[in-house]
Amino acid sequence: MANTSPARSAVGTTSAPDAAGPGRPAATRTLLLAQLGNSVGDGAFYVTSALYFTGVAGLSAGQVGAGLAVAWAVGSSAGMPLGTLADRRGPRGVSVLLALVTAAAVASFLLVGSFPAFLAAATLFASAQSGLAAARQALLAGLVAPADRTAVLARLQAVLNGGLAVGAALGGIALHAGTRGAYLAVFALDAAGFVLCGALLARLPAPAPAPVRAPGPEAGGASATAVLRDRPYVVLTLLNALMLLRMPVLSLALPLWIVQRTAAPGWTVSALFVLNTAAVTLFQVRAARSVTDLESASGAVRSAGAVMFAACAVFAASALPGLGAGAAAAVLVLGAVLLVAAEMRHSAGSWQLGLGLAPADRIGQYQGFYGAGVPVARTLGPLVVTTLLIGGGPLGWLLLGAAFVLAGTATGPAARWAARTRHPNGQEPAGIRPVVREP
């Protein structure tokens, strides 16, 4: 996302004195604090919510799984219209509103006592989260110079992982206590985190809403669903969603693989999670430094696909006959190092491509669509990876790795195709700073 804006005339060329960047970091600090504010609560929520819903709210594991699948399916489709709302009404106000709606959704979980109530609360939560992600990307694009966006997003990702780790530790304390009050405190913490997030975002300068574009041939004119007719961007989004299948590898596939297929001790699962979180917190900013334009972003995604294949091959080898507990654990650690290296490179390249190829007057809409890959990976990924890896064994790992290579390799041509549809000479416009207005 350290990219230039494709629709230069839609934003103008006036410098923004309050834009985040090397000369004026106030907005960046506020964005980082807002990210930290809600990520700590999210970390605690993620590690305790399943046990709360089954042990306190009285739902079955099947109801929780089905409800979350439906909720995220709806949420993924809500990101685009809510992102469009951010474009038209201004990303700051919509971001603040959706942060408060997310807080209300978390708080509503405390009242859940039936499956319909859980489904309603979870759907509101997933929809608000998807819309908030899109609106915050549009807000960042309006406040941060194109050349600085990838670096800022890398810092946000590092803060996110650090906050999740702290929150997970707090959630562990609640799990140890195991009382209703402890669980309720976690949900209250998460809701308060989103209220804090909204309050911090409200302090930022307000980027002007995007001017409504007259209907035209590029990406479907001024339609609220223009992104769906932007074929190269749709292809790029699908390839990114395929790359995001890495998400359930760490959270679901590896724990099952370690327990069922390897001689590694059970604590290896926790060790690999800590390794991943710590590495992203410490090294994501460094991993993103070389990603500065569409070409370097495409190269980062391509190399990420190749490294993911290597990680999958190493994970497959962890089940080789004759490997003892120590050797299997060492092989798994090597695979986890490769996986997190690929994750950081893919993240940096994906941010650059997703923002850099979005028209400047429709960033919210485009980011809402592009970001749908995350809830899709959360919804369909567990089924895909468990069927492929747990059912297919080592061959399944190699097939998944091949899919990563294919998606990573195809990203470059798709990005160049998208760039040509915006700039027929194939050149990106010179970097500009967006116009902002004071709150």
Strand content: under 5%
Give the helix/strand class.
mainly alpha
Share of residues in helices: over 70%
> How are strands sequenced across the largest beta sheet?
1-2
CATH superfamily of the largest domain: MFS general substrate transporter like domains
| CATH topology (fold) name of the largest domain | Growth Hormone, Chain: A
Which keywords apply here?
439 residues, mainly alpha, Growth Hormone, Chain: A, 2 domains, two-stranded antiparallel sheet, 15 helices, 2 strands, globular, disordered N terminus, disordered C terminus
Provide structural commentary.
With 439 residues, the protein is mainly α. The protein has 2 domains: 25-210, MFS general substrate transporter like domains (Growth Hormone, Chain: A, Up-down Bundle), CATH 1.20.1250; 225-424, Growth Hormone, Chain: A. The protein has helices spanning 8-11, 26-55, 61-89, 91-108, 115-143, 149-177, 180-201, 231-243, 246-261, 268-288, 294-317, 325-356, 363-370, 373-392, 394-422, and strands spanning 206-207, 436-437. Strands 1-2 form a two-stranded antiparallel ribbon. The longest helix has 32 residues, at 325-356.
SSE inventory with pairings:
Elements: H1 8-11, H2 26-55, H3 61-89, H4 91-108, H5 115-143, H6 149-177, H7 180-201, E1 206-207, H8 231-243, H9 246-261, H10 268-288, H11 294-317, H12 325-356, H13 363-370, H14 373-392, H15 394-422, E2 436-437
Helix pairs in contact: 2-6, 2-7, 3-4, 3-5, 3-13, 3-14, 4-5, 4-7, 5-13, 6-7, 6-10, 6-12, 8-12, 8-14, 8-15, 9-10, 9-14, 10-12, 11-12, 11-15, 14-15
